[in-house]
Amino acid sequence: MDLMQKLEILSDAAKYDAACTSSGVDRGGQKGGIGNCVKAGLCHSFAADGRCISLLKVLMTNRCIYNCKYCVNRVTNDTPRTAFTPRELADLTIQFYRRNYIEGLFLSSGIQRSPNYTCEQMLETLELLRGEYRFGGYIHVKAIPGADQELIERLGLLADRMSVNIELPSQKSLTLLAPNKTKESILKPMDFISRGIQQGRELVKYTGAPRFVPAGQSTQMIIGATPDTDYQILRLTQGLYRKYGLKRVFFSAYMPVQEDSLLPSLDTKPPLLREHRLYQADWLLRFYGFEAGELLDETHQSFHPLVDPKANWAINHMEQFPIEVNTAPYELLLRVPGIGVKSAKRILAARRSGQLDFAALKRLGVVLKRARFFLLCQGKLMEGVKATPEGVLRGLISQKDLELARLPQDAPEQLSLFERQPNQEDTMQCLTGQI
Hints:
- The protein is about 40% helix and about 10% strand.
- By secondary structure, it is of the alpha/beta class.
- The chain folds into two domains: about 5-300, Alpha-Beta Barrel (TIM Barrel), CATH 3.20.20.70; about 310-405, no CATH class.
- The longest helix is centred in the middle third of the chain and has 21 residues, at about 185-205.
- The protein is globular, with a radius of gyration of 24 Å.
């Protein structure tokens, strides 16, 4: 099989891995090397389904000894199999980078032969890039559960970011759909990477000390393949952030690719709106001071389809509103729909100079169409506002939310290296250096 065919198969097989994230690390170019890394980079180009496409995102191989029922690369699936050699993948990455088609590499893999063998192949690729090619660009690599810690440590000293996919939200679901994987085998390397990152931060004061996974680690879980609820998923997400200090938890709406009695049928639409609501809730956990147990609970385990999680929380806690904008603390301002982190900080700064009214709030960037139900300015509601439960709900349902709820939930397609328009010249030979 030639390199072109390998690239087509292994880039397509990697499209279910989420990688839409900034690099999170600065690394200047070095004399004699190639490439650099900017902390705010990598997020300027996205596929139609919202996933970042500025990385060369491929698998080392789609050969796999595991039989995860939800995975297109499962050992029992009849699909073309191939693998890059470390040299092939390193050369391909550098050729793409020199042509300014990518800013870095996202590398995952099926489990070929054993976790250690697979990890060794990935490690050899990174050693070629960082050593022989002196590549200073961004590299995100998936850690292989079950591989020796020594191998994971060596990977972490070469990669910018690492991730260990949690895959499914519970051990019960893993046992059912991924019998070769356990919660322990996934959390063990996650814990090792977390401790390595913390130790690396302590060593950074020593000049020349190697940096271990400087951009942190992330994980990904599949949404909709199992009966796990939004409440269970959000509690797990919060626990992962707190225990392992993750940079991001990514959610991936399940897209049926396999026929199996334990999985949703092939005509099931991916739960894209549910994925969207989980990302909104994740933002509230990380930047707005919310707890998972505040957004959902045992009696309400799913998000409202027509309003975002923050608005839904506010509707369910009307006893806390309205609040006086001129005296409310920052933490409470952040809980008002229509007030974000930036506008809350602007309110704090502006009210030091005098009393704010609704016109001033609008100038500060507050979305009054949403916030007006929850705020008092100098002891008064906005003129004409009646904060009845029905009126508040109608006011908080945005046109965007309605459009999201009405969207056909067809499986999105990641932008492919091999998509061609009518009469479009085939450029892939040029990309791989064959022209």
